[in-house]
Write a structure and sequence with these properties.
The complex is a heterodimer. By secondary structure, chain A is mainly α. Chain A has 16 helices and no strands. Chain A has a domain of 129 residues. Chain B has one domain: GMP Synthetase, Chain A, domain 3 (2-Layer Sandwich), CATH 3.30.300. Classes of the chains: A mainly alpha, B alpha+beta.
Chain lengths: 450, 99
């Protein structure tokens, strides 16, 4: 065994994540949550968690199950936990959402669903963390991209603990003054640990390796890349320290938070430079669509980091627009762009890996139709930019119209993922070589196949 | 087997391996420089040293199996052994022409 094999449950994670993205966007189109409701209203919490946990975290967890073994050239440890983790996460999200809906007063469901959801999510994310941590621990000393994942897992645990504490207070299960202080002053820290520490740091780390792989750039460890890791790790440390100040009711939270944001700005600038260097050093003349469609995401990352460092934007209504740009421009844009490649790559491994060498097989690139998808990526990012501006200027109706366009673009891109799974774009001559087994849409391959 | 027969068998193996593509880059693994060595010994014993474009690549085992299958199928090969190595690690400079 030289390293990675096909992760059995990754496609199931991706399928669930895609459905959650559609659900979240559908809620926004329907006018549920912000801006129709307050930014801290239960309805907005429903929306935020469907997207942050249901879409982004399931996507990231599924991707890491496949790619952490690639980063460390070792098989996944504790891999049997992947399936129960997915079930726990989906159940936990369901209970959490039910709790938020109850909090909004829309139903008579018990508020206890909130901490119940927190417990299920804690277990589910705990399983994911065990898989990742055990794999990384066995592979020490870690290559740099894996160090980013380790930092991301720490941030994930911080975000889960804070979120679980919030559910205890919001549901009335606990009146502990320490926890009550967390709810009053720790919401932005929870968000930064989740969206920044867990999702973004991990995405950036994995991107170092994947960009080099897909662009055929030399996989060298740049001093600037290591600096990015140190800076983001320090920033997360400051956020954790800020959580402690809130818990203990001592001053310093704002200073620590602002310092963490400034460090993030420095990391963002260095990271952008690294991405540019990797692209310039490529041996592949024409970058594939997953790379080209990631560029707007990198721009959205940098823009949102710059804006969040401007106090007047951060503290006013602008924070919603920045968050939207960060979630849909950076995280979702990058996620959709990389899914476009990863789905085809995993499908190729499943369908053609076992028959390789026994006759002609298609390339991974033959599983996709880039010309068709490129148009929808342009529409997607255009809609995200317009929706961000609409939020910033307070045009709710235009915002919903742009989210509708964004949802249509997302739907068409997901249709492309399904077409890749169905091998629809593969030339008939090489589509079904002898001995090949057609992959399931999202169910795992049978255990006998790698 | 004399040296000429061994060289001929090695050339036949190299040619047979051109049917195998790297799924990501699309080119055949010989032109991509993923086959480091093909040694043929007396009795039709073939030993192949190969690599993949990236360490830990999920396609590694499939590529190794494919090479093994191909080598076994070459007429004159009585025994085939395929070794996956990352010393030296593959770099894009090793391929004749990137896509």
């Amino acid at each position: 065994m030289q390293g990675a094999t096909l992760s059995r449950w990754t496609m199931a994670y991706f399928a669930a994540a895609c459905l959650m993205l559609l659900a979240g966007q559908g809620l926004m189109v329907a006018g549920y949550g912000y801006p129709a409701a307050d930014i801290a209203a239960p309805e907005t919490l429903v929306l935020v968690h469907v997207l942050a946990i249901g879409w982004l975290s399931l996507l990231m967890a599924g991707a890491l199950l496949q790619f952490v073994p690639v980063l460390v050239a070792r098989p996944l440890s504790a891999a049997p936990l992947a399936a129960p983790a997915l079930a726990l996460l989906l159940a936990g999200l369901g209970f959490l959402i039910a709790g938020f809906v109850a909090l909004s007063g829309a139903t008579d469901l018990p508020l206890f669903f909130m901490p119940l959801g927190g417990a299920f999510l804690g277990l589910g994310f705990g399983f994911v963390a065990i898989i990742l941590a055990a794999t990384l621990f066995a592979a020490r000393p870690l290559p740099l991209p894996a160090c980013f994942v380790a930092t991301g897992v720490v941030a994930l645990l911080g975000a889960i603990l804070l979120g679980a504490a919030f559910t205890l207070v919001l549901s009335g299960v606990s009146g502990n003054p320490f926890l009550a202080r967390l709810v009053a002053g720790g919401v932005e820290l929870h968000a930064v640990l989740g969206l920044g520490g867990w999702l973004s740091v991990t995405a950036a780390g994995v991107s170092y390796r994947l960009l080099s792989m897909f662009l055929l750039s030399p996989e060298t460890e740049r001093p600037t890349s290591r600096a990015v890791w140190w800076v983001v790790s320090l920033a997360i440390g400051l956020v954790v320290a800020a959580v402690a100040t809130v818990l203990l009711a001592v001053p310093g939270k704002d200073v620590l938070f602002v310092a963490a944001l400034l460090l993030t700005l420095a990391a963002g600038v260095l990271y952008s430079g690294d991405v540019r260097q990797i692209y310039r050093a490529r041996r592949r003349r024409q970058a594939e669509l997953n790379i080209r469609a990631s560029f707007p995401a990198f721009a959205a990352l940098l823009l949102s980091i710059v804006f969040v460092n401007i106090p007047i934007v951060r503290t006013g209504e602008g924070v919603a627009a920045i968050t939207y740009l960060f979630v849909f421009g950076w995280l979702t844009g990058l996620g959709l762009a990389q899914l476009y490649k990863i789905v085809a790559f995993l499908t190729w491994l499943e369908a053609y890996g076992p028959v390789l060498g026994r006759g002609p097989v298609p390339r991974v690139q033959d599983l996709v139709d880039e010309r068709q998808a490129a148009v929808w990526f342009v529409l997607y990012y255009g809609a995200v930019a317009a929706a961000t501006l609409a939020l910033f200027w307070g045009h709710a109706a235009f915002f919903r119209a742009m989210v509708l366009l964004q949802t249509v673009a997302t739907l068409v891109l997901m249709r492309e993922f399904v077409r890749a799974r169905r091998l629809s774009a593969v030339p008939a001559a090489t589509r079904a070589p002898a001995g090949f087994v057609r992959p399931h849409l999202f169910c795992p391959p049978s255990a006998s196949r790698r | 087997m004399d040296e000429e027969e061994k060289a001929s068998l090695a050339a036949a193996i190299r040619e047979a391996l051109r049917v195998i593509i790297d799924p990501e880059i699309g080119g055949n693994i010989v032109d991509l420089g993923l086959i480091y060595a093909i040694d043929v010994e007396d009795g039709g014993i073939a030993r192949v040293a190969m690599t993949t474009t990236t360490r830990g690549c999920p396609a590694s085992d499939y590529l190794k199996d494919a090479v093994s299958t191909c080598v076994w199928d070459v007429p004159g090969v009585e025994y085939a052994e395929v070794r996956l190595t990352y010393e030296p690690p593959w770099t894009p400079d090793m391929m004749a022409q990137a896509e």
